[in-house]
Structure formats: structure tokens, C-alpha cells
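Batch manifest, entry 17 of 40.
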Amino acid sequence: SPFDVEKVKEACQILQGSHDFATFAGKTGSGVDTKRTINQITVTEGRPLLDPAFEPLYSNLQFWDITVNSRSFLYRQVRKTVGVLVALGQERISFDDLHRMLSIPSRDSWPSKAITAPPAGLYLVNVHYPREAFCFPYPDFSAVDSWEGDKKL
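Output type: C-alpha cells
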């Protein structure tokens, strides 16, 4: 089916920033804060893992890399976010659906035509810890409050 990457890029801009991502979370325990800040989310043209010379079917496919940067994520938040972006790019859901997911944060706001992206293809690329996290002795985790990106919500 057709994929409108410009719509996906527009949706990425909407998802950036601080939101209550309860709609995008898998199971959460009671009392879990579902507010998170997405610092950056981008979609760029990707490439297959194998050279198309070894897998001829790849030459008929488009590959896209979706990169999400945040201090932390909810369980399944990234997979659900990618699923929503794909559904929007394929016009199975609308921008109204996306806005509803963010403005009414609830599992009930999940559109029936969106699916959670499968874990295959999801990669953790980088983890950043501030220099203070490696200072010893490290008596407690009170320094965590000062880490970049914390307390923004």
C-alpha cells in the first residue's frame, strides 16, 4: 500500500515534546507516570541489512529508519509509536486519531486500525549517561534529579 512519508514526518513533529503517552504504553501498573518527553523523532530513508544483490526482493521495497530520542520510554511505547506512524503513513488512521491519542491519554484511545510494530527491526543504538553517574564513591541516586532531560514534565 502507498506510504506518505511527508505525513509521517508531520506526525513526528506532533509527537515531539512532553505528552502523556498512556495511549502508547503497553501494560502499566497503577501509579505509573505515563508522561514522557520525546526530544527528537525522525524518519529518514533507510537501507536493507543485506545487499539487494543477495536478496533480489529488496530492490522492490522502500526502507525507512525511525529514530526516537528520549530520556526514558514506557513499556512498548516505541513499538506503538512506530505502529501509529506506519498506520498514518498508509492512511489507515488520521491526524485526528493521533491528536485524540495525545489529548485523551487512555488505552481506549488506541485506534483499531493501528497495530503495535513487531520487535524485529527495533534496535537500541545509543545510551547516554552523564559523567556524574560514573563518579565514585556514589552514595545514592540523588544526582539523578540533575540529569539532563529530567524534571521537564
